[in-house]
Amino acid sequence: MQTLLPEMKAKLAGTKLAYADIYDTYIFRPIQYGIRETSVGCCGSGLLEVSILCNAVTASACGNPSEHLFWDSVQEKITLRVSY
């Protein structure tokens, strides 16, 4: 993604684009962002369920989703706050 940024900026003239690698920040300093769980997802058991298996009909969610880095066993659930 980072290597594509100059090309994307050229194709999308006038658009402000930026690259930020926030993954390592959340993994190595999760408490700073209110994240208390980085090893299992919030959906179901947090170990196996992914994608369509994590829905209101077939799976339960943890009681504190804002404290989990991952929604399911694959997908990060990250809220990024950007200041201009």
From TrEMBL:
Q: Which domain of life is it from?
A: Eukaryota
* Full protein name: Uncharacterized protein
Q: Which organism is this protein's natural source?
A: Hibiscus trionum (Flower of an hour)
Taxonomic lineage of the native organism:
Eukaryota, Viridiplantae, Streptophyta, Embryophyta, Tracheophyta
